[in-house]
Amino acid sequence: MRLHHVQVSCPRGGEDAARRFWAEGLGLVEVEKPVALRARGGAWFRAYDDAGAVGAEVHVGVEDAFAPARKAHPALLLDSVAALEAATTRLEALGFEVDLTERHTFDGHERVHARDGHGNRVELLAVEEHPR
Prior knowledge:
Distance between the termini: 32 Å
Number of helices: 2
Domain VOC: 2-127
Helix content: 10-25%
Number of strands: 8
Order of helices and strands: EHEEEEHEEE
Strand content: 25-35%
CATH architecture: Roll
Shape: globular
Mean pLDDT: 95
Structural class: alpha/beta
Number of domains: 1
CATH class: Alpha Beta
CATH superfamily: 2,3-Dihydroxybiphenyl 1,2-Dioxygenase, domain 1
InterPro entries: Glyas_Bleomycin-R_OHBP_Dase, Glyas_Fos-R_dOase_dom, VOC_core
CATH topology: 2,3-Dihydroxybiphenyl 1,2-Dioxygenase, domain 1
Protein name: Glyoxalase-like domain protein
Strand order of the largest sheet: 1-4-3-2
């Protein structure tokens, strides 16, 4: 078994904020939703590895009674600490909240938590290059 995708929610009309966070901020590629699902709104994003295989997939779905996920969250493993730093810098430059307080609280990894444009928590982590 392996994970196919994770879904986070957004309010109706929240797709542009999702694109800023997932595509512009984190570098995922927006992909077309299946025709049968397009009328629901939302947007889908993928990250590809160097060989072109899907490494992560995030679906942002419209939820009419939207409330942000403040604790539950997807966690994305980035390729390196440098990639984590670059993502953190991009997200902050775009005005997204990035929390560095738990940077060294998960053995063997460096991590940060960010809030997407709707307040959903997202964890970004990378394997430590020089474990303490």
